[in-house]
Amino acid sequence: MLYTFSEALEACGFNDKLKYDKELEVKNNAIALFFEMNKIMACPKAVIASPMPLGYRTTTKRRAKIGRNGFSFGVDEAPITEPREHQEIYSLVEQKLQSPPYRPLAEALNWVILRGSYTNRTIIFNVRELNAPIVRKLKQMAEHLQRMPKPVTAAHVYVAKSSDYYLEMDQPTDSLSFKQLYGPKELALKLDGFSLKYPVTGFSQINESQVRNMLSAAKSMAKLDANTDFMDLYCGYGLFSFGMGEEAREVLGVEWTGESIECAKRSANFLKRNAHFIAGRIDSNFINKLPKAKGNEVILLDPPRKGTLPGVIESLAKRKPRRVVHIFCGTDEIPRSIKEWDKSGYKIEEVQPLDMFPKVRHMETLISLVPKA
Length: 373
Hints:
By secondary structure, the chain is of the alpha/beta class. The chain has helices spanning 5-11, 20-37, 84-97, 103-108, 132-146, 211-222, 239-243, 259-271, 284-288, 312-317, 334-343, and strands spanning 60-67, 70-75, 109-116, 121-127, 154-159, 178-182, 186-191, 194-199, 228-233, 250-255, 275-279, 296-301, 323-328, 346-354, 364-371. It is built from 11 helices and 15 strands.
């Protein structure tokens, strides 16, 4: 029987009202208990604290709801995790959508999403349909957003018949599905000495304040050098490829098809980095067809919360990498994956938890693995 991280948190007394120093203490105890309950033979290091325990989310969302009392927003996340500017923007949008002239837009709306950085904000209106009255109201809304004390940098419309919120996964790419109201079509993440651009609908870490800590931990675990080839699996727009890959001889980034990997290719050209990117569905067959490393290889993989597809870990182990850094944004996925690595001849070297989600029952965990022999 596998025990969940939520059960471990519950046993250690977690709640979202704790002061942050106490919350970190509880999460440290919980991750240790989680490893013990699931018989994972490793001792996690101290959790890396978030520089911003409150108001840290750079991606937030509101579900559109129409009831007897008219239009309102449903709130999925704890408001204390959202920047104040996001709440002010949602308040203005909700006020407009509650007025009769905006009824067509209110009835067509699935979600309103805010993305960007702590200084630049992009809004996405996820709608079921798009016609002339709705477009007019969206343009009027855009005018109000640009006149705010802290203006919204860009606004876009995303047409999705499904009411489910998602970013890049299975996203329609035709021009009728995504429309620009104003502002840039890409977002930017500033790192030390350079910036990386990524698509408005592409995945990026929601806690921008923790990105440098995560890169630093991954770099320390990977131990790249000039004689090492670095494979960045599930690379997205190239955060790890560019954030730590410069120390390696060659970098190969791998991601499923989408705009994110096209951004990574453009960044490689602009930054003149020795990085190459391949797109495809990351399964065992795809892994087996990837180019072989020319020498020592270090693999970093940062899969979605649900983890890797069956056979991926086994196929990666067959490449005999010198070291693996496996990043888990879903803690409950750790026991299954570590069992697969163990069967494939790899053991845990180091476990570094990182608090990517203060006030929330989740943890980001970096685990480095090395061959048993």
